[in-house]
Write a structure and sequence with these properties.
single chain, alpha/beta, globular, binds 3'-phosphate-adenosine-5'-phosphate sulfate, binds adenosine-5'-diphosphate, adenylylsulfate kinase activity, APS, amino-acid biosynthesis
Length: 207
């Protein structure tokens, strides 16, 4: 009988250096900042600005970007529903490892399905999964269209494009929401500032 997905004869290996030792070394607490939203909503911009801001404060972070991971770890996956599920599952597991290493792991993926994001959340201790929703209207994302993908999707040249002919399920209870104020999107520094403030108040920026 196959034991795929069901570990048989496999035992957890404990080591003497633990997460709290690594956190002491780094003077920070490991966590996952999970950025979700439509293509063009500003996920990568926020991820990079936040990464730079944390770096300048002497905090160790690392970005897991959906686009980039699809060049390597996830290059066998397409955009059909079951592959998106597997994409998020894998990145959730990797993000968990980075958080266990003591890093502030910034995951930036469309991650369109609520259930999959909740499964990633469930992998981490309480409050260590910080979901950031890029709440940008589709019209704004489509007007930006930096890669020309919306244009291709509208022309029917890409099938199953999120927001056009594939679903996006917004979070119901995210920790942070980034949205327009009076029709204007906050600049990248303000978006990152919102996340840094949250991390600071929650005690992640010191051990
Ligand atoms: N069909 C379809 N739907 C959505 N996005 C598409 C598609 N095909 C290619 N792309 C490009 O892939 C990037 C999203 O990859 P992700 O791994 O984040 O997607 S997902 O979480 O598995 O849904 C996404 O990058 P971002 O624009 O940075 O979001 C797109 O550039
Ligand atoms: N806060 C912002 N204000 C104005 N333009 C932005 C902002 N954030 C991102 N952009 C622009 O929107 C486009 C899409 O941003 P990007 O970070 O690549 O989105 P995503 O990773 O969600 O696809 C880029 O051209 C980027 O420069």
């Amino acid at each position: 009988m196959s034991s795929l997905g069901n570990p048989v004869n496999i035992f957890w290996q404990e080591c003497s250096v633990g997460k709290s030792d690594r956190q002491k070394l780094l003077n920070q607490k490991g966590c996952v900042v999970w950025i979700t939203g439509l293509s063009g909503s500003g996920k990568s911009t926020l991820a990079c600005t936040l990464d730079r801001e944390l770096h300048s404060r002497g905090k160790l972070s690392y970005i897991l970007d959906g686009d980039n991971l699809r060049h390597g770890l996830n290059k066998d996956l397409s955009f059909k529903a079951e592959d998106r599920v597997e994409n998020i599952r894998r990145v959730g597991e990797v993000a968990k490892l980075f958080a266990d290493a003591g890093l502030i792991c910034i995951a930036s993926l469309i991650s369109p399905y609520r259930k999959d994001r909740d499964s990633c959340r469930a992998l981490l201790p309480n409050k260590n999964f910080i979901e950031v929703y890029m709440n940008m209207p589709l019209e704004v994302c489509e007007a930006r269209d930096p890669k020309g993908l919306y244009k291709l999707a509208r022309a029917g040249k890409i099938k199953g494009f999120t927001g056009i002919d594939d679903p996006y399920e917004p979070p119901l209870n995210c920790e942070i929401e980034i949205k327009q104020e009076n029709g204007i999107c906050p600049p990248p520094s303000a978006m990152a500032g919102q996340v840094v403030s949250y991390l600071n108040v929650q005690g992640f920026l010191h051990e």
